[in-house]
Amino acid sequence: MYKLCVFAGTADGRELIERLTGRGVSITAYVATEYGRVALGEYPDVEVRAGGLPRAEMPGVFRAERFDLVVDATHPYAEHITESIRLACEETGTELIRLLRESTADAEDGVFVEDTAECIRFLTGTEGNILLTTGSKTVPEYCAAPGLRERIWARLLPLPSSLESCREGGLEPSHILAMQGPFTEELNTAMLRFVNAKWLVTKDTGSAGGYADKIAAARAAGAKAVIIGRPAEREGLSGAETLSAVERKFALAPARKKVIMAGIGMGSEDTRTLGVLRAVAEAECVIGARRMVQSVDTTGKRVCEAVLARDIAAIVREGSERVYTVLLSGDTGFYSGAKSLLRELGDETDNEVLPGIGSLTYFCARLKRPWENVRAISLHGRRCDFVREVRYNAAVFSLLGGEVGAKEALRMLADAGLGGVTVHIGENLGYPEERIVTGTAEELLDREFAPLCVLLAENDKADDEPVTYGLPDEAFDRDKVPMTKEEVRGVCVSKLALGRGSVVYDVGSGSGSVSVECALVASRGKVYAIEQKESAIELTGRNAEKFGLINLEVVPGTAPEALVPLPAPTHAFIGGSSGNMREIVELLLEKNPKVRIVATAVTLETLSELTELLKEFEIAECVELQVNRPRTVGRYHLFNAQNPVYIFTFQYRKQP
């Protein structure tokens, strides 16, 4: 195993170690303090040695350990340590790489001084409080300067050595801000305002050291930054270049990439989670729609605008970064692009999915109601049986957009007899132009709404809707087209034993009553109503529309020819065969040998044909159903016998 020594005095060093761990390299990491050990974390192939390594001991350690490579990732201002490492490597013939932190300083950031001494000289000629963020070692020097000790507040790590430096300099305890970072722009601003600072002293620590956040905070708080410039350094490599150099030297396979899919909420900062902010901070590349990537701080990161899963996956595959954060609208678990992106990436990358505040939870909160009993669907660019969902659920939430906007959804409800349902519509949720309107479907039908919005329908009569098959005959449009009567229909659908995802053929659909009943039961499946008569085709379509069934398709034509292009059925009901019973059954079995078939007979010819077929199946059943209906004769009620119906059920053809 290769042996690597890293002097990890910066976040860059810690990141390098994180990228190399678990890849067949034994790493010895030197950090100056116990805090550095804790910040670095624990890895099975990394030995962390806290307390630093004295210059005199370095050559002996390098010889004893026989490191293949040393990486100097110490702080840009730790010149003496960098020089000691360089001399020890030259003395022992150990290869050395200097990891340089890239400077992000700009001439407009503030006042630049060469070193601590010049900074002190400059500050003595000014007035106002000072927030010192350059560490504890130089605190005594600042406190020794005339008039500075009373003006200084020092922010430093909560370590005994740091506090000792402040005590040595005579700094009052109330002027000590002992805290552990990282420090955001908002926290820096709050601290500057807390001490009423007019001056912020910092170093050019680069993006990894929070330099940009300090400069932005100084501007926000009305303070002036004093930047201690970097000492001149020998040549070195950036973090990415250092990683590549180590990988080449040790012939390491490329590290697995990490993709964080983060739900960004409703668009405003108020609905953005800390997890999203952490994911953006961790990322080296941020991907998402324009409005999303522009809404977060992407300073120092590669930014790519992409929405489709295949485009995002291509960016990840072709990129050189290790961590990618993909920003997705709303919540990653609710009709989100995360699903397709996970499928697209597969196991190529290490994936993490972070939830966000979605439109469902946000909208219900704005309506001051729970969402635990809400049925959530989407009409945005997809087919969904919206009317059925509203009819049978007390509360239905839906995303709207594309072909089905708010006006179309309201029209669908009104046409299905649900115009009295209470509807809440939300536009531009989470944005300043947010609007929420409430009324019945009929009351809102003439209103105009934004192309993209959400809807919550509340149906207080949903519990009264029948959930069993056997709808009354009066529920259907009939005309003069033959219809399977409700008692017979109820038994036939029961014998079919449908599942929610069943694919059903109704051969000879007539008025479509059996098709409708099957479509209501197989709510996630598909029903094909096959019919040859024009009047019956029109009537079946009318009844399907009446019940708002998008999973019922009318197929004009004669069986078995009309069945050929259709998907394989799981169930079939044969109410009319036009003399082609055996041919129809043969085609059904060819499409699916396990298809369950229910057929009815009212004539002796069909009864005979089905009886012969019945002998060929393992599951073979026939029942005669006789329905009698009463009629009034004077003051008496007599039963009129209806024609008997024979109901056949068969499945699994016997093997010869």
Can you tell me about this structure?
The chain is an alpha/beta fold and 656 residues long. It folds into 5 domains: 2-98, NAD(P)-binding Rossmann-like Domain (Rossmann fold, 3-Layer(aba) Sandwich); 107-228, Rossmann fold (3-Layer(aba) Sandwich); 256-357, Tetrapyrrole methylase, N-terminal domain (Cobalt-precorrin-4 Transmethylase, domain 1); 360-464, Tetrapyrrole methylase, C-terminal domain (Methyltransferase, Cobalt-precorrin-4 Transmethylase, Domain 2, 2-Layer Sandwich), CATH 3.30.950.10; 473-653, Vaccinia Virus protein VP39 (Rossmann fold, 3-Layer(aba) Sandwich), CATH 3.40.50.150. The chain is built from 23 helices and 30 strands. Strand 8, helix 7 (160-169) and strand 9 (176-178) form a beta-alpha-beta unit. Helix 3 packs across helix 4 (79-92), helix 8 packs across helix 9 (211-221) and helix 13 packs across helix 14. The model has no long low-confidence stretch (mean pLDDT 89).
Uncertain runs: none
| CATH T-level topology of the largest domain | Rossmann fold
Q: Give the biggest beta sheet.
A: 7 strands, mixed
**DSSP strand tally:** 30
**Overall form:** elongated
SS-based class = alpha/beta
Q: Please indicate the percent range of residues in DSSP E strands (runs of 2 or more).
A: 15-25%
> Termini separation (Å)?
67 Å
**Rg from C-alpha positions?**
38 Å
Could you outline the blueprint of secondary structure elements for this entry?
Blueprint: E1 2-7, H1 11-20, E2 25-31, H2 34-40, E3 46-50, H3 58-65, E4 69-72, H4 79-92, E5 96-98, E6 111-113, H5 116-124, E7 129-132, H6 139-144, E8 152-156, H7 160-169, E9 176-178, H8 185-194, E10 197-203, H9 211-221, E11 224-228, H10 239-249, E12 258-263, H11 274-282, E13 285-288, H12 290-293, E14 302-305, H13 309-318, E15 323-328, H14 338-345, E16 350-354, H15 359-366, E17 375-378, H16 386-392, E18 395-400, H17 406-415, E19 422-427, E20 435-440, H18 441-444, E21 453-458, H19 486-496, E22 503-507, H20 513-521, E23 526-531, H21 534-546, E24 552-556, E25 571-574, H22 581-591, E26 596-601, H23 604-614, E27 617-625, E28 628-633, E29 636-641, E30 645-653
Parallel strand pairs: 1-2, 1-4, 2-3, 4-5, 6-11, 7-8, 7-10, 8-9, 10-11, 12-15, 12-16, 13-14, 13-15, 17-18, 22-23, 22-25, 23-24, 25-26
Antiparallel strand pairs: 18-21, 19-20, 19-21, 26-30, 27-30, 28-29
Helix pairs in contact: 1-10, 3-4, 8-9, 13-14
